[in-house]
Amino acid sequence: MKKRIIIFALCSLFISASSFAEVRFSGFASINAGKVLSGSGVPQFGLEPTFLADYPIVSAYDEDISFSPESLFGLQVYADIGEGLSATAQIVARGADDYDAQFEWAYLSYVINDAWTVQAGKKRLPLFYYSDFYDVGYAYVWMRPPADNYTWQIFNYEGVNFLYNGQWGDWSVTGNLYTGKEDSKENRLLSEFFFQEPTREIWKDIMGGVLGLSKDWLELRLTHMRYTNERFRSGEQTLFDGSTERDGKFYGLAANADWGTWFVLTEFNRLDLGGNLDTAMVSVGYRHDDLTPYIGYSTFEQKDADDGDGEDHNTTFIGLRWDFVPSAAFKVQFDKVKDNSFNLAVAGDSESITLGVDLVF
Fold this sequence. Notes:
Blueprint: H1 2-17, E1 22-39, E2 51-54, E3 59-61, E4 72-82, E5 85-94, E6 102-111, E7 116-124, E8 156-168, E9 171-184, H2 188-194, E10 199-215, E11 218-233, E12 236-237, E13 246-258, E14 262-272, E15 276-286, E16 291-302, E17 312-325, E18 328-339, E19 350-360
Antiparallel strand pairs: 1-4, 1-19, 2-3, 4-5, 5-6, 6-7, 7-8, 8-9, 9-10, 10-11, 11-12, 11-13, 13-14, 14-15, 15-16, 16-17, 17-18, 18-19
């Protein structure tokens, strides 16, 4: 009830502000369904055959066909207040959350000059190439960005960032410098899936930067972030090698090539938490009129496995996108997951099929 009141109040504010500000509404939606065709599950944890399609919000399919795991509706409100100042809010209702609407974004922007913009509020943490438009399925070719590569439990933050947009010779350049924190009081991935007990995950003293370079058919994106992690499980603070805190360092590189008909998408990431957690993905696609078939491979490997535990899994996927009308695309995708985790299997091996429609309006 409280969330509905907040949403109503925010909408009322934007509507009342329309007398002195330009207000624009836009939206996006995904209506997806899928099921596990075959899978091993993780018997020692009582987990039936499962395909974990989205780690942060635990979008998981089983052997019964379901629309809930990845279907969503989103509404974005943008208000141009004038003199370079604007406000943006994004509300998303996910099937995985029983369509309980949540604020994903809520921030102010101020244009300093032609090159620089400062923003403050709640935003998506820009770790990955697709982070900023992760929920907008229409914006990318697959059913979803590869789950092995997009596994982290924190995906939003509250803070301040500076955006840069410029031209360096023949290269178009974008940049993002950001700082802030995120306190996920009942983190869904850790609470419901990995630890199966209430888990509070804190990332503080976040400092990061993103550099994007594009020229002709080539696009590069480099990113780096540092943060300090605290964790509480069932109210008890977790110790990391005897300390209540640990520092993490994230590194990322995306390199995309697009020749109009053929394209290649790649992304490589490393999280250093004393040991390295490496993720990678590569995907190739071909555009033919309204049809875009594609294939891809993604992997996650935790190399610090001295105690015998850890994660090692990969996914091979093949799919088709059909842009059957403007602003809407039908997609179908087959995923084959191989879970080679050391002694702590994540979801086991699986083969699954998903299909659906992504649209923007």
